[in-house]
Every structure is written in structure tokens, then in C-alpha cells.
Design a protein that fits this description.
Length: about 900
């Protein structure tokens, strides 16, 4: 195919560019006398060993992590007086001093005390440079360790941020999530940019997440969520926020780790990871693999009377169930077959959702603190199901390969990455039954520089990137006409941020990014912020942001049938032409004044299609936001965050609508000739001729019978295809067409509140509340609903315990108001929900931990995407062994 050469060329460009950037920043490799630092880290409250604590030597690249027994050992530590830093999420950072002698060993033990994590942690996502949460110029939150562990154990990454204020998490089945903040969630949502170690995890064709195929969370990973527009630093699709995932280096997770879990929905999951260091800590390596298998809450909906969809939803709502505009589904879920094609009844068991992955990583740790990384891997997904704007789609088997190379230093980093998707077997539109394919790749090269100056009063961040995307759908989703399928598109960007401390308490932040590319016009995204910090534990913030979201390839170039091709229009056109020609020939002067046409301008194909077509003239969606924020940390015992915002959004990409794409001009059946008027006039003339005795009654009856049949056919055609008819080719071919356009303006506003308090050193209470409202200031088009798909009120309350003997427990109540949903072919009301989640963990010894994770433990049946599955309880139990 045409794009293979393009892919190879793009990859070569990416590799050469990255190599050139590496050469611009050589790492000194000087000889130096060194020694060793070792010791152990324990918990202040219980004296128990703390595993996973980050231990580093300030001002050097030497770092490590405590093992299962709390011990650590750092090699190649420069001789002399050194400061050792101990950090772990949920504990107060600790520093210790040690004198290291050449060839000697210094022992340094540490005792860490628990503290609220929300504001003390250092984050990087908000500004692309390290800063404390309390000082960040954005609404940023860090997922805590129990949430990350639970998300890693279940393979459901979005659940790591489910309790953060402002988060909307809509779930269908086991792996289909739509993560959003601050309104206007949708199916295949992409308003929150998701990056893992700098790599965009989105699929090229849709721009959305395929959560089941993403690399799994590591136990030492950091998960940060920035809420609000973020394009000033991150570009397209950082529309409502950025989810940043940072994986630990290989030396931070040394040892072998095996996790096995299973439970309801016939779930099983097994992960294996081994990491180590070589050459006295100069190199680190990691290999990992995993397999998971589970049933799903999704059900087939093939009954032609729609009763299966109604029955499915009846357990979750008292509202009338609204059937999708596409009607019943023409294909059952994989593993099931039709037992009665007349009714749509099916038989058989659903095939399980199966995911597997493998990856490897090699790190080089330079003496000056730089880290070079080369890593890659692949995930394979089977039978996962997505709710899309044109109905549900099931992926039979798809492969997601990826690779990344990076050089990260104190003041700069350069990286190149690749992310692909290959349909190994077709995925199917369940509504139409048609097979769909995607073979896509993203190549990305980026460099970033940051430094402080003016005695650390100022900091600057500068960066630039190049990206190439290739998409080939084997003409199943895009047309080969105009080279839309198998296409390759490039994007370029440059960005910068400047921070300046006007006084010790007042800091100004300004940022801007320039984006340009083959599919978008030049975009400039500015950002400005003022942060006032009366002391180290309190801050007030005002922020201004602009961001944009690009249409995806589906919205630009989609070409798929949305109904079975029809022979009727062409047959009717032929019959009318034959009839009028016969009348002109047989009745001659008697009907000459009626000007009956021998040919019609309709130009229908023998098989007339109804098509969903993209619009390559779409504009980007834009948002302008103003935010006020307050963060406070109270003596290490509690914290409060309050964020309020007003956003103005415009140029929404609509759902599929008729008569909106100028590339396909609207065609009216009455254009040039009004067939119905001609038939009516002929009917009157025949009656007049019969009354005048010019034609016999029998002939008149036959002619009028033909007129009635043709008139009925015309009325049927006008009612079914008339509203969507358009010209789809230069030759004038007609078809039914629905497409996309931009329309609508909205003002939204909201308040997000988060709070936490340590009742004791072991027992913590946390909660969040989110308010959202909106006004439509410029309505969308007829047939398109401008709904935010977001509840007006929602909140969470969590009680957690982390005590002696390694016992951990937490219970979360999540309360969500009911709200209206409209996205594509699905529209209806989402019922209110009151869900309870439970996490339990117990460290049997330094090497074995057992756990149980329950989502929706009270088994309240609810759906959170209209058209998605009715979700119930899922309880899993498992064991992790580390050695």
C-alpha cells in the first residue's frame, strides 16, 4: 500500500532527528572517586519496612529504590559530603547527610512519617517542569498509591483518577471508558490528552483512547491530572485537561514481581515483571508481560422489535428507553450466532475480552544525572467493545505496538516515539454488520529545554516537536478517492513558558504554543497566570487559558454506508421515465402541454447508497477559560483545594446531519421537474379525456392505476431519502448523505472542591464535590443536541486506613446526579447513581501482599453512557509476590 514507504521514511526522519539532538547535548564521562551508600527505610508509626521509597543523592544522577524489606544500596556515589533524599507518595520527604569515602560504604537509615499527599507532592505535568502541587499554575491533582494499585490490578487505568474533583468517568463494559473534566463528555472522548512518559496514547484514526491496549500501570508509577485547557504547553486535544503518567525507571523497581488475580465475570489477570541493574548501576533493564481475560456486561441487541435493548436497560432506569436511530443491530457479539434470522434471536456465549502485552526497557544512568532510555512493546486486544457515534463497534483482534527513545537531563530532554495500531482481524460495526479495518501509526520527535535564572527568580521552558501520522483503513472507513485512505499528515509545534517571581509571594506565568499542520490552520494557544502564596502552604491563583481540539480522521474523511443499499430509487426513476415516455408516445397532443419528461435528473445508481461522509473543511473546536483557585495545606494534617472556572466553547463538531457539507450539494427531488405535480396533472388530464370520450374507461383505469402506484413510490422515496439526498460525484450521482459541520457556542461554569484530613496517622478522610452548569449562547443545528453529557452535581467520600502489619483498607462512596446524554445515534437520560467501591490489602511479609478490590460492591445496576452497557458489581482478589 502507498503509505508503507511514507511510514518508513517518517520513522527514519524521527530516528535521525533524535540522534542529531542527542549529539547536540553530549554527556561528560569523566572519572571520579566513588563509594557506596546503603541503609533501610521504615515507617515512623509502626517501624515496619517501607518498600518502593525513592532514594537519591542530591545533585547527582545516582538514585534507587528500597526493596521489599525496606533496604537500599546506591553505588557510584561521588566521594565527599552528600545529601540523601528519601521520597515516597503519602510520606513527608526526608533528608539525611553522609560522608562518602572512596571505595568505602556509608550506612544511612531513614524513618518516614505519613502526610496528606495532595499538595506536598512535586508534579511536572502542569508546567512541564518540577513544582509542588500547591505552587502549580493550574488545577492539578495526584492519584494516591491505593488508587494506582487498584487500577493496575484491574487493568482499568482511568479508575486511578476517579475520585479527583471534576472528573467524569463514563464506563461501558470492562475496557471502554470516556474520561473527561469540565463538561461535554462524549463517546470516544478525546478532550483530555493522555500521555505516558511523554507518549500520546491515543489511536490515530479516532484520536481517542483504547484503554485496554495501553501499557499497564507500574506499582511505582505517578499519575497526575491537570484540569482545564492545556494547549499552551501540550497542543491539540489538551482541551479539558492532561492526564500525565510517569513510569519508574528500571532501577526504581528492581527485582521480580508476580501478580495473579481473579474474580467475578470469570476474570483472570496475571502479570510478570523483572528489573535489575548492571555494571555497578550504570545500566538498568526491565522486561514485563501480562495476560487478562474477562467476561463483560455488554449484551447483543439483535432482536428486530428492540425488546432486548429495552429489557437490558429496564433494570437500570425507570425512564422510557430510547432506541438508537440505527435500529436493531445486524451483528451479534463475537461468539454468538443467529438462531432465528426472522426475529433476530441469537444463541451461544459471548467470547471473553482478552488482553495481553509484553515490553522491555533499557536505561543508561550518566554520572551527571542524565538518563537515556530505549523501550518498546506491544499489546493485543480481542473482543473489546466501543460505543461510537454511529453505534457500537467490536474489535475482534488488534495489535498496538509502540517504542520510545529519550535522553532526559537536568535542563533538557529529547525524545522520539512511535505508536501504532493494526487490525489483525476485522472490527465490526454491530449496527450495519460491516467489517472495518485500521492500520495506523504515529511518529513523534520532541525536544525541550528548561532552566532557572536571575538567582532562581525566573524559569523558562522551551520546546518544539514534529509529528507524522499515517492512516490506512483498506477503504472500509475512508475512500481511496482523493487519496484520503492511506494518507500521511504532518504537524509542527513550538512552545514556551516563562515564570517570574515578582516578589517572594507573587509569581507570574506566561506561556504560548504555535501549532500548524496538514489538517489544521495555524493555531496559537496562550496562557497566563498569577499565583499569590502568602506562605509555603497556601496559594491563590488566577489563570487564563485557550485550547483547541482537532477533528479526527473519522470526522474529516469518513466514508461508510449507514444503511443497506437500495434498488428502489433507480427502479422508480426508470419506471417513471418509461411511463412518461409511453404517455407522450401514445397520447401525443393530448398531453403535450403537460411537458412530461422522458428523462429525469435524479441520476440514481442501480444500488443507491446512504453514506456517512466526513468533512475536510471542518474547523477546530476552541475553548477560552478563566479560573480562580485556592490550595491550602494545614500543618501536614489536612488539605483543601477549591477551583472555580468559566469556559466559553465554540465551533463544536456536530453529530452526523443531512445538508450540512457543501462538498456534497443538497439535491431535491423537485429540482428541475416536480414529479408529483406532473403525476397529479396527468391524472386530471386522463379523467378529462375519459369524460370527453377520447379514451375508453378501461384504458383510463389502467393509466390511473399506474399513476397511483408511481405516486406512492414517489411519496415513499421523498419521505425516506428526500431529506438526506445529495450529489456525491462530479458525474451527478445521487445518494443519501449525512456529514459533519461546526456549530454552536456555549458558556460553562463550575466549582471543584477537594479536601482531606488525617484523623490519626493511620486513618484518613477525603472527599470531593463538583458543581457544573452551562448556557447555550448560540444554538446548534436542527437535529444536533448541544448537551454537556455531564451531571450538575457529583461527589465522593473516601475513608482509608493504612496501619500496622501492612494492612490497608479504603471505602469510597461516589454519588452522581442524573443528566441527559446525546452523542451520535444514542440519546436518553442517565440515571442517578450511588456506587460504593472497596479496596483491601494486607502485606503478609516483606515479599507477599494479598488484596481484594470491589467496584460497585452493592451491585447497583447503572449505565453511564447512553447506549453503553448496564454495569454491575465486580470483585477481584489476588496476590503479589516480590523478590
Amino acid at each position: 500500500m502507498r503509505n508503507i514507504g511514507v511510514r518508513t521514511a517518517a520513522l527514519a526522519r524521527a530516528a535521525l532527528s533524535t540522534a542529531a539532538l542527542f549529539l547536540l547535548f553530549p554527556v561528560p564521562g569523566y572519572a571520579q572517586e566513588t563509594g557506596t551508600v546503603r541503609g533501610s527505610v521504615t515507617r515512623a508509626e509502626t517501624g515496619g519496612a517501607l518498600a518502593g521509597v525513592s532514594v537519591s543523592i542530591r545533585g547527582t544522577g545516582v538514585a534507587g529504590v528500597t526493596g521489599p524489606d525496606g533496604s537500599y544500596q546506591l553505588e557510584r556515589v561521588p566521594a565527599g559530603q552528600q545529601t540523601i533524599l528519601f521520597r515516597w507518595l503519602g510520606y513527608r520527604p526526608h533528608e539525611a547527610q553522609a560522608t562518602v569515602t572512596a571505595g568505602g560504604t556509608a550506612t544511612v537509615d531513614a524513618v518516614l512519617q505519613a502526610q496528606p499527599v495532595a499538595l506536598e507532592e512535586v508534579v511536572v505535568t502542569a508546567s512541564r517542569a518540577p513544582e509542588r502541587v500547591v505552587e502549580a499554575p493550574a488545577a492539578v491533582s495526584v492519584a494516591d498509591i491505593p488508587q494506582i494499585r487498584a487500577a493496575a490490578a484491574t487493568g482499568q487505568l482511568p479508575r486511578a483518577v476517579a475520585n479527583i474533583p471534576g472528573v467524569d468517568l463514563a464506563q461501558s463494559g470492562i475496557t471502554d471508558y470516556n474520561l473527561n473534566t469540565r463538561g461535554f463528555n462524549t463517546t470516544l472522548n478525546r478532550r483530555v490528552l493522555v500521555i505516558q512518559d511523554g507518549r500520546d496514547l491515543a489511536v490515530a484514526f479516532l484520536g481517542a483512547q483504547e484503554w485496554g491496549a495501553n501499557p499497564p500501570l507500574e506499582d511505582g508509577a505517578r499519575v497526575e491530572l491537570v484540569r482545564g485547557p492545556g494547549s499552551a504547553l501540550y497542543g491539540a486535544n489538551a482541551f479539558s485537561g492532561v492526564l500525565g503518567i510517569t513510569s519508574p525507571t528500571a532501577r526504581d523497581i528492581r527485582g521480580t514481581r508476580i501478580t495473579l488475580s481473579g474474580g467475578e465475570l470469570s476474570s483472570f489477570k496475571g502479570d510478570l515483571r523483572h528489573s535489575g541493574v548492571l555494571s555497578q548501576g550504570r545500566f538498568g533493564y526491565k522486561i514485563a508481560s501480562g495476560y487478562s481475560r474477562s467476561d463483560t456486561w455488554s449484551r447483543s441487541r439483535t432482536l428486530k422489535n428492540g425488546s432486548d435493548f429495552v429489557t437490558e436497560y429496564a433494570a437500570a432506569t425507570t425512564d422510557a428507553v430510547k432506541f438508537p436511530t440505527t435500529g436493531y443491530e445486524r451483528r451479534p457479539l463475537n461468539g454468538q450466532t443467529y438462531s432465528d434470522t426472522a426475529t433476530g434471536a441469537i444463541t451461544g456465549e459471548r467470547d471473553p475480552i482478552v488482553n495481553m502485552f509484553g515490553n522491555g526497557r533499557l536505561d543508561y544512568y550518566a554520572v551527571n544525572g542524565s538518563v537515556a532510555t530505549i523501550e518498546g512493546g506491544a499489546s493485543q486486544v480481542e473482543n473489546e467493545l466501543f460505543v461510537t457515534g454511529i453505534g457500537r463497534v467490536q474489535v475482534t483482534k488488534a495489535l498496538r505496538p509502540w517504542a520510545r527513545a529519550t535522553w532526559a537531563a537536568r535542563n533538557y530532554n529529547v525524545m522520539a516515539w512511535y505508536s501504532g495500531r493494526d487490525s489483525r482481524e476485522p472490527q465490526y460495526s454491530l449496527a450495519s454488520g460491516l467489517p472495518l479495518q485500521e492500520h495506523s501509526a504515529i511518529y513523534h520527535v520532541e525536544g525541550q529545554y528548561n532552566r532557572t535564572f536571575l538567582e532562581d527568580k525566573a524559569r523558562i521552558v522551551l520546546g518544539a516537536s514534529f509529528r507524522n501520522q499515517t492512516v490506512d483503513t483498506d477503504t472500509t472507513l475512508m475512500s481511496s478517492a482523493n487519496e484520503n485512505d492511506g494518507r500521511s499528515d504532518s504537524y509542527f509545534a513550538g512552545y514556551g513558558q516563562l515564570e517570574y517571581a515578582v516578589t517572594p509571594k507573587v509569581r507570574l506565568v506566561g506561556a504560548a504554543r504555535w501549532d500548524d499542520g496538514d489538517l489544521i490552520k495555524r493555531q496559537v494557544s496562550p496562557k497566563g497566570a498569577i499565583i499569590f502564596s502568602p506562605n509555603a502552604e497556601h496559594s491563590f491563583r488566577f489563570t487564563f487559558n485557550q485550547a483547541f481540539q482537532t477533528p479526527n480522521y473519522s470526522e474529516f474523511f469518513l466514508r461508510v454506508p449507514v444503511a443497506t443499499p437500495q434498488t428502489g430509487p433507480r427502479v422508480l426513476e426508470t419506471n417513471l421515465e418509461t411511463f412518461f415516455t409511453t404517455m407522450n408516445a401514445s397520447l401525443g397532443p393530448a398531453v403535450a402541454s403537460l411537458n412530461l419528461p422522458n428523462t429525469l435528473p435524479w441520476n440514481f445508481d442501480p444500488l443507491t447508497q446512504v453514506l456517512a461522509l466526513g468533512n475536510d473543511s471542518l474547523k477546530v473546536e476552541k475553548v477560552t477559560g478563566w479560573e480562580l483557585g485556592y490550595k491550602a495545606n494545614f500543618s501536614g494534617k489536612g488539605y483543601v483545594t477549591i477551583d472555580g472556572y468559566i469556559n466559553r466553547l465554540k465551533d463544536f463538531v456536530t453529530d452526523l446531519l443531512p445538508a450540512v457539507n457543501p462538498a456534497y450539494p443538497v439535491f431535491s427531488l423537485t429540482e428541475t421537474v416536480n414529479v408529483q405535480n406532473k403525476l397529479d396533472s396527468l391524472d386530471i388530464r386522463i379523467q378529462q379525456l375519459q369524460a370527453a370520450g377520447q379514451i375508453p374507461a378501461a384504458q383510463a383505469a389502467v393509466i390511473r392505476g399506474n399513476i397511483a402506484a408511481l405516486r406512492a413510490g414517489y411519496v415513499s422515496l421523498a419521505g425516506s431519502l428526500g431529506p438526506v439526498l445529495a450529489t456525491v460525484s462530479p458525474a451527478g450521482t445521487r445518494a443519501g448523505v449525512v456529514s459533519y459541520t461546526n456549530a454552536g457556542r456555549v458558556t460553562e461554569r463550575g466549582v471543584e472542591v477537594g479536601a482531606g484530613y488525617y484523623v490519626t496517622n493511620e486513618f484518613k478522610l477525603e472527599g470531593s464535590y463538583t458543581f457544573f452548569d452551562f448556557d447555550v449562547t448560540e444554538p446548534g443545528l436542527a437535529g444536533d443536541s448541544l448537551l454537556p453529557n455531564t451531571p450538575k452535581h457529583k461527589g465522593t467520600v473516601t475513608a482509608s486506613y493504612q496501619g500496622a502489619q501492612g494492612l490497608e483498607a479504603s471505602v469510597t462512596a461516589r454519588i452522581v446526579d442524573s443528566f441527559n446524554w446525546a452523542a451520535g445515534v444514542f440519546a436518553g437520560r442517565i440515571p442517578a447513581s450511588q456506587l460504593v467501591d472497596l479496596n483491601l490489602g494486607y502485606r503478609v511479609n516483606n515479599y507477599v501482599r494479598i488484596f481484594a478490590i470491589g467496584t460497585n460492591v452493592l451491585d447497583q445496576e447503572r449505565f453511564s453512557i447512553y447506549g453503553g452497557s448496564v454495569n454491575g458489581r465486580r470483585v477481584l482478589g489476588g496476590v503479589t509476590a516480590t523478590f
